[in-house]
């Protein structure tokens, strides 16, 4: 059997995203397991899943479906009279998520959105939304996170046709190689794309050990813009505040903003992160200090 090239799993998985998003958008029965409109809910996760929870929470609440909070599972305040808790996890084995669900079991209805259908979380939650077709071999997440968010968006009544088409186009096009070789990256977002910005920064750190930061777009002006300089990139997901692009360019840094669905722009970032890692001689399928799931010793 031939030896796999560094990042081979991540490459296959990130390129499959238009297909997995389309499948998630069609899972009407699974979407119906998510909390009904009007329910007051919390969404919990760790790492990438926490950032997707932030995006879902903003989208759900602003769409008028009910108060929605997002928490890191280790820091969740779920004893606040929530009607339900949604636990998002690729592996279904993350210690903090399992402990939280076990603690509230029988008191608060729980829905798990899970990649591994054989995981222990499946039997702990009241309802399980299973996405095994989006599960991954690479330690660095790409398609599970975005597929879960695609499922959430579809459940809120969004038409994902444009996002799927944008993602396919992003994967087919060449990107500017200068993006790969920047000294430093700052990722920005507004509203639901703040979570995407945080996730983009995490992806670059995990895959290529890069210097990255992430902020809400307006907060970037309150100090972090001091890091902007020639050879560095400020990457905006979605619409930027008026005047921000000019402010960044005045520092000599490169301001990046693409006129595509922000989730598709995250796919572009996945490509950049993978290529940067490989160019540095790293394997994002087996990143430094990381495993597929964080399982803490008792």
From TrEMBL:
PROSITE patterns: SIS. Its EC number is 2.6.1.16. Residues 29-178 form the SIS domain. The keyword RNA-binding does not apply. Keywords: Aminotransferase, Repeat, Transferase. The keyword Repeat applies. It comes from the Bacteria. One of its GO terms (molecular function) is glutamine-fructose-6-phosphate transaminase (isomerizing) activity. GO terms for biological process: carbohydrate derivative metabolic process. PANTHER family: GLUCOSAMINE--FRUCTOSE-6-PHOSPHATE AMINOTRANSFERASE, ISOMERIZING, GLUCOSAMINE-6-PHOSPHATE DEAMINASE. This is Glutamine--fructose-6-phosphate aminotransferase [isomerizing]. The gene is glmS_1.
